Description:
Low-confidence stretches: 1-14
Helix content: 25-40%
Number of strands: 21
Distance between the termini: 81 Å
Mean pLDDT: 83
Structural class: alpha+beta
Largest sheet: 8 strands, mixed
Shape: globular
Amino acid sequence: GWAEKAMDPFLSGWQRLTFSSDKKLVPFDEDLQPLLDADGNLLPTDQWREETTGRFKFSQFEVWHEVTSPADATKKIRKKTGYRMDALERDTTYECPHCKKEILGVQMRWMIERYRWASHNPHAPADMISAHVWRAYCPPELGGSLGRIAKEFLNARKDVAALIKWHNMTCGLPFIRTGSAVKEDDLDRVIARNPRKYAKGELPLRPERLAITVDKQKEHWWYGIRAYGVLWDHPDQPTWSALIDWGRASSWEEILELAGEKPDANGELRRFVWVDPATGERELFAPSVGLVDSGDEAEIVYECCLRSTIFDPYKGAPPTHTKWSPIKISEVHEAQLNLWLCWSNFFAANLYYDCIKYGQEHGEPVHWWLPSDIDQDYRTQTTDEYQDGDGWIARTKNNHLGDVEKMQRALARNIETKLDDIRELKAKEKVKPSDD
């Protein structure tokens, strides 16, 4: 603990060392004693106090550069590109929440020598004492350096496996995904992860399937088209997915043209072109599967789907409606259509965490790609949601392209089954005995 008066830990200013600067409600008074009523019962949560915790301070080591604005190539913006790691590891400080003074790393030893344990569970059995232990309480030579802890966090935050390890082993805490949001920097990192750069309308590799998803919003129809394929040169032959088109249409007829189901004004069907770099051979591709969010206009969407050979209606739902399965498919509109009832928060977390923020799922890389020229509409709408508790909330309700991408994640499960069939077929062809 840190004392504000005379540096005496038994006077005042006790606090829990923490890596966060957030405030939260806790059932303890300023001296970390449980808040009890006259009968000795813990007070209700609306009477808990707000605990202020200190924070690690290393923002002064940020490195900023001027870069071209993604929204306007004629303008420059300042962008954080990293940290001066050597200085950060050496000079990171801890800011006291009470006096706002900075505690140097060399002063941590003084604090560690004068600490005391305080139980955070007032209802724990008498023979059990529980206290939060983490690396900040260690001497610097044993890994308790403030700068080293901060450096480990910065190196781990782009890798979910490393971040879980940092929470568990360094902070001594369970890893809980909460209060998170996707930022434009996360989208830039997705683009940087692409093994092959490409632009809107281009196919980065030869696909096996194309899929289109649509979110109807009053008079507008927001859509996204993704290509799906297999990285055949990779030893594990994983699936890749690339966004190749997105935007806003003004009618269902325009959606059918974009999907290649209806000829345009010139009488031509839309196709995406793949040119084999080795042979120059051209192949044409169009979406073969699609979903449309029925939302509050189910009957209109059902009628539209009946005029298409590839679209099914979609509806986001809580897990109680899907029977705790990510997807539940049922017949609607007199059994003429299959309604995809999908667990909204499941696919939101899959999109925003696994695909965008961390780029991996269950420890395995997710080959989910974006073109280099995503526009401001896409950036704004895929960063509109944030996680609050167990659910995802849109700040402005302008998250239509985010919903389009969530529907793609639902379709990806169906497409993966088709790709497994293609993998199996190619494997059989590879071992097929020759005519000799």
